[in-house]
Every structure is written in C-alpha cells, then in structure tokens.
Amino acid sequence: xxxxxxxxxxxxxxxxxxxxxxxxxxxxxxxxxxxxxxxxxxxxxxxxxxxxxxxxxxxxxxxxxxxxxxxxxxxxxxxxxxxxxxxxxxxxxxxxxxxxxxxxxxxxxxxxxxxxxxxxxxxxxxxxxxxxxxxxxxxxxxxxxxxxxxxxxxxxxxxxxxxxxxxxxxxxxxxxxxxxxxxxxxxxxxxxxxxxxxxxxxxxxxxxxxxxxxxxxxxxxxxxxxxxxxxxxxxxxxxxxxxxxxxxxxxxxxxxxxxxxxxxxxxxxxxxxxxxxxxxxxxxxxxxxxxxxxxxxxxxxxxxxxxxxxxxxxxxxxxxxxxxxxxxxxxxxxxxxxxxxxxxxxxxxxxxxxxxxxxxxxxxxxxxxxxxxxxxxxxxxxxxxxxxxxxxxxxxxxxxxxxxxxxxxxxxxxxxxxxxxxxxxxxxxxxxxxxxxxxxxxxxxxxxxxxxxxxxxxxxxxxxxxxxxxxxxxxxxxxxxxxxxxxxxxxxxxxxxxxxxxxxxxxxxxxxxxxxxxxxxxxxxxxxxxxxxx
Length: 534
Ligand code: FAD
Ligand code: SIN
Fold this sequence. Notes:
This protein is of the alpha/beta class. The protein is 39% helix and 17% strand. A 6-stranded mixed sheet has the order 5-2-1-9-18-17, with helices on one face. α14 (467-490) packs antiparallel against α15 (495-516). The model has no long low-confidence stretch (mean pLDDT 95).
C-alpha cells in the first residue's frame, strides 16, 4: 500500500487523510502547531452547499453567483463540478460527525452572505469551522491508519532526483520543533494542505500558521503558481486599538446588519426608525449595498477610509433584535462583550483585513500539481484547500465557497490516489544538510524584517494598487529575500526563519503578479489601469 504524506490539518488535509485511511492507505499527517490550529478552526459563516444535485435551478443559482463573484475568471467546468459534488461531501461530513444548525422542523437552517442570491449556507451558529475541525480531528486522532505529527514544520519538498522536478516529489524535510532536529519524511504521494498566507499583512483575520509555506515550498521545486495578485480582504474585521482584527462574519449582514460611514451613521442616528439598508448613504459602490461581493465592499470601505482619514466604518445592528442576534452569533457576542460592546446595540468599528489567498499552486481536477515550465503534472505532488488554485474562484471568491472547494478537492484527490497508486520510492532519501551551520543567535533582525515585510505588503500591495508602488515593493522584497537567504544558508532552521523566508518569497510573487497585470478584475485593482481606461 502507498504511504501518503499530508501537510496540514485543516479541512482539506484531515478530510483527505480520513478518506485515504478508510481505503486502507497509510497516512502520515504533519502540522506545524496543534492539529486544530488552522483557518478552518476560525471559519465563522459556514459552507455553501446545495444538498440535492438534481435541483437544477438551485445548482444553477449557486454556479451563477460563483461565476459572477469571480468576475469572468472562473473555470466554469470546475465550478459546476464543485457545486454538484457539494451534497455528497456534506453527507460525508455529517457521517464523520459534523453537526450543522437545524430549524425546529429538523431542516438545515440556511444563512446568506454577500453575493449569494439565496440562502444556501450551512453553519454551526457563528463557529462553523470549530465544529468541522472538532469532528475531523476526533475521527483522525482515533484512526489506526493515520499517524499525526504535531509541532512538525515542513521546510522543503524532496525531489526524487536533485534538480529534476519532472521526476517528482517523494517526501519532505521537516523541523521537529520539540527536539529541534530536522527529519526526512518519505511519502509516495505528498499532499500540500497548508492553507493561506494572511500573515504577510499585519491586519489579517488569519491565524499565525498562515504563512504561505506550501506555495513557497512548491515554487522552489518548479511548480506553477498562479493568480497570486487576487488577495481577498474581508470587509468587516473588528478594529479595536492594540488588538488583532477579529472577524465579524458576513452572515451578520445576511441577517440585516448594515455598513455606514461616519456621515451616514450620524444622519441615521437622527431618525432611527428608518431601516438603514434603504438609506442612500449606505456604504457601498453597488446596488446590493452591504451585501455586494467582498471585493466591491472592501474596496468601497478602503476608499472611504482614505477620503475621510478615519480608522474604521460602522457596522450597525441597532435596528435588529439583540437577543435573537446573540443566540445566532454567540461567539461574536461574547467577544464583543470583552470590549464592552453589545450586539444589537452598539455600532461596531470595522475595516478590511487580509483574509484569503485566491491564487496558489495550479492544480488539475485531481489536485495534481503542475510544472511551471511545461504544465505537465509533477509526479507525487498534490495540493488541496486554500493553497491550491483550482479555477473555482476566478478573480474573487464567493463567501463560504472556500470550505466547500477544500472538501470537494480533498475528495477528488483522495479518489484519484485510491484509483491510481503512486509510484513507490524504495531508495533512501537524502538527509538535511546541517554541517557547518550555526544556531541562530540573533533573532532581532528576523523580527525587524518581518515588520518590514508586513508594512511593505500593507502600504504597497494592499486593496488599491499602483504600478510605482508595486515596483517599490518588488525592490524591497528582493533585497529582504537576499538578506534572509544569507541568514538561512548559514543557520540551523528555526520556525521564525523558515516562515520569514517563505513569506518574503510569497510576498514577491503577489507583487510581481499584480505588477504584470494590465486589467482590473475582481480583487485586483490598480488605480493606474483605471486612469488609462478613462
Ligand atoms: P487551513 O485550515 O488553514 O489549514 C492549514 C494547515 O496547514 C494548518 O494545520 C497549518 O498549521 C498547516 N501548515 C501550514 N504550513 C505548514 C508547514 N510548513 N508545515 C506543517 N504544517 C503546516 N471559508 C468559508 O468557506 N466559510 C467561512 O465561514 C469562512 N470563514 C473564515 C473565517 C476566518 C477567520 C478565516 C481566517 C477564514 C475563513 N474562511 C471561510 C476561509 C477558510 O476557513 C479557509 O480557506 C479554509 O479553512 C482553508 O482550509 P485548508 O485546509 O486549506 O487550510
Ligand atoms: C465570514 O463568515 O464572513 C467568512 C466567510 C468566508 O470567508 O467565506
């Protein structure tokens, strides 16, 4: 039986691990922190899914909304497949033990988020990811065919033949953070399920593990990375001085919360009897107001903040019933209470934060990674979840389509590996080169370089871009890359240096992709392109 190596314990990695292990394969799962530390665990709004694939009008509606959000850049056949597979994968999640919210009549309670034309989002109140992660982790920890290695940080992929990516991938070198040793871990197939890269920006909704490691490792072996310019900023992260941005789910707007700028809020306060959703000063650049797709709403807020010099806009819920909101969004209500804010009463200061990496490792319909040089598959290398670019999201992901894409592609890839056993790799793998390397004694420069990276991404590679600023970012990131690589080559690996090296590389890939684009689509918005059009 093949040995499969999976890196990452979010929805993609764990779902694939369970499917492969149930089919009798031996699976090793590495994760750099605790198994639950993932974006999946923090997902709030839910998972978009039509349960009955014979319901053509519902399927068509979900497909159409996804294509519209993707601004003409989605792969339609992938969207159709993912939307049609949703019901089957939700059934799998239910069998694994995930519990979604139901109505008193026993039907699933469906939520709505920006860009969706109907209610189709299954959820577990406002902590959907926590529930999914709980159930998947419970099942994986107890599975006899799965061996979990927490606190194990994948550093680089091992090629079957040095400098011959077309020959394929057969394992990874990984830092055991408990012992400090670098291990060589073999896999006949390696599945990257390493999630996104929100940590490149200082304002992000993502957990600390989201440092783009999968993209960086794959890029270094010659894999094709695409669409990195499409970085999704979530419009409504709570902005409290000195605190990390805490996501306020879009599902709250689905229940009637509305975004207002300061002027709009002041006007509305004069006559609160009016529903703020109907007011002309509601903050948005589209007729759908606060329920437009994320690219539009985040850009409208970003522009408004630049014009007014304010640090936030307001998400208002005062016109809604407070007790009902607290029951529907208990995690958010509890977090707000710690700041002295009450859901359904106080206006919430919110603004955009880096949220989702639409681009990533280009994969085919089976999750197989492709070579940058000729688009041929790389034997033994697969990518699933946020790290992968499947064509599903185009230039902008529709809300709650990420968990869906991750679970469907985890299934696709597992089925492929069950049908097509990967070539086994009998020879001994090379060990990590550690001769002559010193223990990193000075951590100061690394912390400083990370701050420089975060500031560069924030100011030069944010929501609104300009060619001159993108080019400035590329120059700065290239210099940072040279300096970090010099430290990297001379020192024994630590988590800080591994992640910094990866983040700088991924930041450069984002800036370069953005700089090469001559058209504004979805999440990529360059002010210079608008002025050329005008
Ligand atoms: P993740 O869940 O991020 O897991 C990645 C795993 O890889 C982690 O275990 C990490 O530790 C591990 N890892 C990374 N690098 C390494 C390495 N070098 N070595 C070892 N391990 C490594 N999407 C929706 O569809 N609906 C939502 O409601 C929703 N809400 C969200 C709310 C928040 C706050 C955030 C941050 C995201 C949300 N998203 C939502 C997006 C969605 O949660 C993610 O895109 C999705 O969970 C990604 O799953 P994944 O399995 O690909 O990666
Ligand atoms: C949210 O709950 O607003 C996040 C949903 C998503 O990222 O799809």
